[in-house]
Amino acid sequence: VGIVGVVGGELANLVAYGYAPASVVTPIGSIGVVTNVFITTLVLKEKFTCVNFAGVLSVIAGIVLVVYYAPRAVIEIKSDGIWD
Question: Which of 1, 23, 31, 32, CA to CA, is 20 to 30 A from 16?
């Protein structure tokens, strides 16, 4: 299940790079850190501390700032140009 999830996530990243600039897609990938904090808290029963909370807020704030201030770019992808 884990490997399928990783491969699926990387394929989704590949598709995302076609629709948005890397400066937007890459920081959004850091949401995995936030997910890991919640998984370790729920599954492994680790304590959720104030430092964890501050880290989660910092990551989310960083993602919001990067996406908000990213350049507005429109990327058009056509399949006929792939094989040329």
Answer: 1
Backbone dihedral angles phi then psi of residue 25, each to the nearest 5 degrees = -65, -45
Q: Which amino acid is at 22?
A: A
Task: Give me the amino acid identity at 73.
Answer: A
pLDDT tens, residue order, the chain (84 aa):
789 988 998 888 888 887 778 888 888 888 888 888 989 999 999 999 999 999 999 999 998 998 888 777 666 666 666 665
SS (H, E, C) the chain: CHHHHHHHHHHHHHHHHHHCCHHHHHHHCCHHHHHHHHHHHHCCCCCCCHHHHHHHHHHHHHHHHHHHHCCCCCCCCCHHHCCC
Structure tokens at 67: 């996406």
